[in-house]
Amino acid sequence: MAKVKKEVGITGGNIFSLIVIVACIGMGALIWRYIMGNPANFENGDNTGHPLAGNLLGMVYKGGKIVPVLLGLVLMVVVFSIERFFVISKATGTGSLDKFMTKVQSEISAGNIEGAIAECDKQKGSVANAIRSALIKYQEVKKEGFDSESAAETIQKEIEEATSLEMPMLEKNMTVLSSLVALGTLAGLLGTVMGMITAFGALATSGAPDQAALANGISEALINTATGIFASALAIISYNFFTSKIDVLTYAIDEASSTIVNTYRRSRGSLKN
Predict the structure, then answer these.
(1) What are phi and psi for residue 210, nearest 5 degrees?
(2) What is the pLDDT of residues 221-230, one digit of tens each?
(3) For residue 173, is it left (φ>0), alpha (ψ between -120 and 50) or beta?
(4) Are 132 and 120 in contact (CB under 8 A)?
(5) How many angstroms separate the Cα of 131 from the Cα of each of 23, 123, 150, 206?
(6) In three state form, how does the secondary structure of the chain look?
(7) Can you give the pTM of this predicted structure?
(8) What average pLDDT does the structure give for the chain?
(9) Residues lower than pLDDT 50 in the chain
């Protein structure tokens, strides 16, 4: 049942990602065409001519048809970052993770497993769910009288299974963010090369060299590089931020698992004495 649920969740996540990617590129095309390409941004109200002096929107528009893709990449970073923020915040639970871990570890160390389970029910989220599963398993192995090593292995296996059900949701779309790091730069460079080809091609066919046209063509081409680097920088910051958040959650689960196992070993030792 859990496996079916996991597969359905992954399929739904892929559909969501595809919709977001298509929608962002479409939105980028609309922004490029109707906002940046607004005649008011150009000399004589003609978007086929030169942009007004200092008009950034007009300059970016003249970067060519690669610009909608670059704008789409920037929008993707923003949308997926917002989505990851809400998902990971939900996985953390309703309260402070640090306070929750302190309370749970205190209850576990004191041997109050029911109290620790109650804290998990109160906190909710992926971390609390994984720890709760381990605590339930703790009660089962204690009732059956497992030795320390068997209990540690059983509890650890339960933690791993619970974590494997929670982690795909946490890591979903992180691959998209990591891919956007490279795609932003590559798309920007492609736009720059295309812009330079257009600029030098125009000079080659116009007879006398036109320094103004050359300078304008180069500036338009470099806009693509700047936009691509901006998209990549956003993606790097977002990816590293959320990766560190996921690492914190994983560490919290491992820390609680270690506390549970050590508590069981102490309880077995006290029974022998």
Answers:
(1) -115, 100
(2) 788 888 899 9
(3) left
(4) yes
(5) 38, 11, 19, 72
(6) CHHHHHHHHHHHHHHHHHHHHHHHHHHHHHHHHHHHCCHHHEHHHCCCCCECCCCHHHHHHCCCCCHHHHHHHHHHHHHHHHHHHHHHHHHHCCCCHHHHHHHHHHHHHCCCHHHHHHHHHHHCHHHHHHHHHHHHHHHHHHHHCCCHHHHHHHHHHHHHHHHHHHHHHHHCCHHHHHHHHHHHHHHHHHHHHHHHHHHHHHHHHCCCCCHHHHHHHHHHHHHHHHHHHHHHHHHHHHHHHHHHHHHHHHHHHHHHHHHHHHHHHHHHHHHHC
(7) 0.81
(8) 82
(9) 1-8, 270-273
- Rounded distance between C-alpha atoms, residue 227 and residue 245, angstroms: 27
Cα angle, residue 61 at apex, residues 55 and 65 outer, rounded to 5°: 170
Cα 113 vs. chain centroid, distance in angstroms?
A: 35
Angle, CA 3 vertex, CA 2 and CA 4 arms, to 5°: 90
**pLDDT tens digits for range 41-91:** 888 888 887 788 888 888 888 888 889 999 999 999 999 999 999 989 888
Burial degree of 271 (CB within 10 A; 0-12, 13-18, 19+): exposed
Q: Which residue, chain included where needed, has tokens 């920007």?
A: 188
pLDDT for 4 equals: 43
Beta-bridged to residue 51, according to DSSP, are 42
In angstroms, the CA 196 to CA 218 distance is 6
User: Per DSSP, what are the bridge partners of residue 42?
Assistant: 51
Question: Could you tell me if 67 and 227 are in contact, meaning their C-beta atoms sit under 8 angstroms apart?
Answer: yes
Round to whole Å and give the CA distance between 70 and 179. 14
Q: For residue 1, how many other CB atoms are within 10 A of its CB? A: 5
